[in-house]
From TrEMBL:
UniProt-annotated binding residues for S-adenosyl-L-methionine: W50, C51, D52, G86, S127, P128, K129
Binding residue positions for [4Fe-4S] cluster: C44, C48, C51
Domain of life according to the entry: Bacteria
InterPro entries: 7-CO-7-deazaguanine_synth-like, Aldolase_TIM, rSAM, rSAM_sf
One Pfam family in the UniProt entry: Radical_SAM
Family: Belongs to the radical SAM superfamily. 7-carboxy-7-deazaguanine synthase family.
Pathway: Purine metabolism; 7-cyano-7-deazaguanine biosynthesis
Species the sequence originates in: Flagellimonas algicola
Record-linked SUPFAM superfamilies: Radical SAM enzymes (SSF102114)
Identification of the protein by name: 7-carboxy-7-deazaguanine synthase
Length: 210
C-alpha cells in the first residue's frame, strides 16, 4: 500500500513509477546507433493493441522511485538519457529533467503526446496514436515524428499528422514489429513516392539487444 505522502510526491513528479532503467543502444529514429541510458516510466492509458510493453500500463505495479536516485544512476552510464514508457507525460517530468540537466545530461523523450509537455528536453520524439491523439501544443515542439505503421490506413494517418508539426521536424515511418514483413515493402514504396519521409526500423531487435 503506497502512502498518501508518497502519492503526493508522485503527483509532484518528485517520485516516479519506475518500471526499468538500462544502458543500451538507441535502436530507432534519428539517434539510432547511439549509446543511451533508458528510463522507462510506468503508466499509460493510450492502449495500443500492438504495444510490446503492456506491462508498463499499470503504474501501480511499478515502485515510486525518487527522481534524484534515478538521475544519479543515469549519470553513471551515459550523457544521453532517453525517457520513455508507458507514457511519461502522464507525470510531471520537470523535476526529473531538472535533476538530469544539473548533471549536464542530454534529455530525450519518447511520447505519444497525449498529455501536455512538461520537462526540459533536448530532443522530443513524438509518436502519435490514433486512439488518443496528441495535445495540439506539442506538435510544433517535436524534433522527430515517428508514426508506427500497422496497416495501410496508417499512411493516411501519417499524412494527417505531418501537417501539424514544424517545418524542421524529421519524419519517420516505422513498421510495427509483428507485421514488419508485410509492411516494410509498403513503407519503402511510400517513402520513395513521398521522400520527405524516412524509414525507421527497430534495429535493436535485429541486433538482439535490449
Amino acid at each position: 500500500m503506497i502512502s498518501e505522502e508518497v502519492m503526493q510526491l508522485v503527483d509532484k513528479g518528485e517520485m516516479l513509477p519506475l518500471m526499468e532503467e538500462f544502458y543500451t543502444i538507441q535502436g530507432e529514429g534519428y539517434h539510432k546507433g547511439t549509446a543511451a541510458y533508458f528510463i522507462r516510466i510506468g503508466g499509460c492509458d493510450v492502449g495500443c493493441h500492438w504495444c510490446d510493453v503492456k506491462e508498463s500500463w499499470n503504474a501501480g505495479t511499478h515502485p515510486p522511485t525518487d527522481i534524484e536516485s534515478i538521475a544519479i544512476n543515469a549519470a553513471k552510464y551515459s550523457d544521453t538519457i532517453v525517457v520513455t514508457g508507458g507514457e511519461p507525460l502522464t507525470w510531471d517530468m520537470g523535476p526529473l529533467t531538472n535533476s538530469l540537466k544539473a548533471k549536464n545530461l542530454q534529455t530525450h523523450i519518447e511520447t505519444s503526446g497525449a498529455y501536455p509537455l512538461s520537462g526540459d528536453w533536448d530532443w522530443i520524439c513524438l509518436s502519435p496514436k490514433k486512439n488518443k491523439l496528441p495535445v495540439p501544443e506539442i506538435y510544433p515542439q517535436a524534433d522527430e515524428l515517428k508514426v508506427i505503421v500497422y496497416n495501410k490506413h496508417d499512411f493516411v494517418f501519417a499524412e494527417e499528422q505531418v501537417a501539424k508539426v514544424g517545418p524542421n521536424c524529421i519524419l519517420y515511418l516505422q513498421p510495427e514489429w509483428s507485421v514488419r514483413d508485410k509492411m516494410v515493402p509498403l513503407i519503402v514504396d511510400f517513402v520513395m513516392q513521398n521522400p520527405k519521409w524516412k524509414v525507421s526500423l527497430q534495429t535493436h531487435k535485429y541486433l538482439n539487444i535490449p
